[in-house]
């Protein structure tokens, strides 16, 4: 399918200014060149680990609502990456930077948690995908051009790039986009409007999250 004919591309273009801000942010630029101050990365890891809690629940909900086993398998395999290597990365990186998991959610984190919980509770597969697509596609977009990471980067920067880049992660984003592209024409006007609102809100919140981390 031509990119311009994809629902996910039309949705992305509807929030292009925030998309560009989220995918070319000073936070990820400095992370990639190794100049990001450690206290900003510490803040980010502590807050993003709380984001991951809600993300895992949302992804599990999407697995539950996928129309067939074949539609759910890539999501289930991705869930294993998040709860496996990515979870371990967070714990190792927080430990190396002298911090630990916390339940003290900043406003930007709480806003994302609320969005994800609402999408999961809606019982609408399209809503769940809208948030999942944004969360992973934004990360692929900033991380892929930075891959492979500079050899001199500490692991807490380098692995955050490699977890969101390369063929495997491209496949995850392509799968999530493909699911939303496929379900889109089956949604009525009300469901499309709701999924659009969630998609665009998720882009705003990705930008806000990086802004908050960079301001830490
Ligand atoms: C806020 C946020 N958005 C997306 C991702 C990518 N998994 C993340 N770790 N954190």
Kindly describe this structure:
Helix 4 (38-65) packs antiparallel against helix 10. By secondary structure, the protein is mainly α. The protein starts with 6 loop residues before the first helix and ends with a helix. It has helices at 7-13, 16-23, 26-33, 38-65, 69-96, 107-121, 125-143, 155-162, 166-183, 189-215. The protein has ten helices and no strands. The longest helix has 28 residues, at 38-65. 5-(aminomethyl)-2-methylpyrimidin-4-amine (NSP) binds next to helix 4, helix 7 and helix 10.
Which helices and strands, and how do they pair?
Blueprint: H1 7-13, H2 16-23, H3 26-33, H4 38-65, H5 69-96, H6 107-121, H7 125-143, H8 155-162, H9 166-183, H10 189-215
Helix pairs in contact: 2-10, 4-5, 4-6, 4-7, 4-10, 5-8, 5-9, 6-7, 6-10, 7-9, 7-10
The structure holds 5-(aminomethyl)-2-methylpyrimidin-4-amine.
Residues 48, 51, 112, 135-136, 139, 206, 209 line the site of 5-(aminomethyl)-2-methylpyrimidin-4-amine (NSP).
